[in-house]
Amino acid sequence: MTSLRPLIPILTAAGILLGGNGLQGTLIALRGAQEGFSPAAIGFMGTAYFAGFLIGCLVIVRMLRAVGHIRAFSALAAIAAAGTLLMAIAIDVTMWTAVRFISGFCFAGLFTVMESWLNSGVANADRARVLAFYRIIDLGAVTGSQFLIPIVGVEGFPIFAVMAIMITLSLVPVSLGDRSNPSPPEDVKLDLKRAWQISPVAAIGCIAVGVTNSAFRTLSPVYAQDIGMSVADVATFVSVSIIGGVLIQYPLGYASDRHDRRIVLLVTTGLAMAAALALGLFAGGDRLLNFALVFVFGSFAMPLFSLSAAHANDRAAKNEYVMLNAALMLFYSFGAIGGPFAAATVMQWYGPQALFLFSALVYAIFITLILYRMRRRAPAPSTERGRFTALLRTSTIFARLAQRGGSKDTNGRER
Fold it and tell me: Which of 51, 355, 376, 401, by CA, is between 20 and 30 Å from 33?
């Protein structure tokens, strides 16, 4: 653990920020609905967030080169905290949409800074452990933060103050950590055309997952509240889906390492579609049934990005891993920009259950495309198949952090 000790401050900051980001996403939906914002307006706020996130991913490396990690982190955290407080002062759809855009930009930059820092500070032998800690922190922070909402309450100023405090406190371990400011990372070379050529299935899959997961992340609290759940139940509803995705991701990854990944991707997408249809058609206002079905939905919807990326990596050259995974995250972001507003519009026309019927339709289209591509192209040979790696969609730098921790072929050779 000695070699990991210098990374404790940045991992602590990551936990605080991941929790604050997860809390903000749920609160915006709940408080917005309470303030009378339409589902379409709340969905457009989600669209604004992911648009800002995409732009942040593209420009943050230049900022790091200009001012360094600590100054960039401090500036972005200050802006994000100020934006959070501004939402409490000015309760207005236009203002909240603008703040969500800025928040997306800031969080993309903050996650990039943290993951660049981790990447520069971790030894190759420790990458697997650091990745495991980071994923545990992600799960614990995002699920735990949901329950601050029923504790503090949705109404009034305090919950916004709690979010601003969390974002501000992330500055403390970064500022007082005993590690020197690392060198800025190189720009991630993006080649979307090449990424598409490597695997159309993966590219389309990441777009589809972006559409559905962003819609769920933005609007599931609205769905849960509209069918009569309490604030505590809404927090549980969101958390259960995240836990399901984490628990089932690795068994699915294990299966995909041993079989044609497209078959695993096909089955997983089909099960996510079935769960979405069940939520949309049969769950109604039954609280326990909704919890059970959203657990199944999260179990199969959340791992789809990592499964798509693993399939693409099987067909990539060894020097294309970072470029490819960064490009796939941008494909995800393209889908995420459109998903919340499209799903919210459908919800406004047909009711809260339309959120999951919309997702089921997207999955049905993706399944059709997988079947089409399976007829056009043979599976990747088992000797060229890499190991499954669970990827977080936090920044384009995450691919570098995961590169040596999980990118070996089935014979143990580094790719």
Answer: 51
Express as a percent the part of the chain with pLDDT over 70.
Answer: 86
pTM for the predicted model, two decimal places: 0.88
Domain residue extents for the chain: 2-176+185-406
Of 364, 384, 361, 366, the closest CA to residue 313 belongs to: 384
Q: Are 113 and 76 in contact (CB under 8 A)?
A: yes
* Nearby residues of 158 by Cβ (< 8 Å), 6 or more positions away: 152
- Tally of CB atoms within 10 A around 71: 14
CA distances (Å), origin 357, targets 31, 57, 294, 302: 24, 31, 13, 17
Residues 6 or more apart in contact with residue 356 via CB below 8 angstroms: 223, 276, 277, 279, 280, 297
Q: Which of 299, 218, 209, 262 is nearest to 50 (CA)?
A: 218
Token readout for 158 is: 């305090």
Nearest C-alpha neighbor of 167 from the set 19, 8, 17, 15: 17
Judge whether 246 and 139 are in contact, CB under 8 Å.
yes
- Whether residue 184 contacts residue 67, with contact meaning beta carbons closer than 8 Å, is answered with no
State the CATH architecture for 2-176+185-406: Up-down Bundle (1.20)
Dihedral sign, CA of 63, 305, 246, 364? Answer: positive
Cα–Cα distance, 261 to 308 (Å, whole number)? 8
> Which tens digits make up the pLDDT trace of 350-372?
999 999 999 999 999 999 999 99
Classified as helix, coil or strand, 409 is: strand
Number of H-type helices and E-type strands within the chain: 17, 0
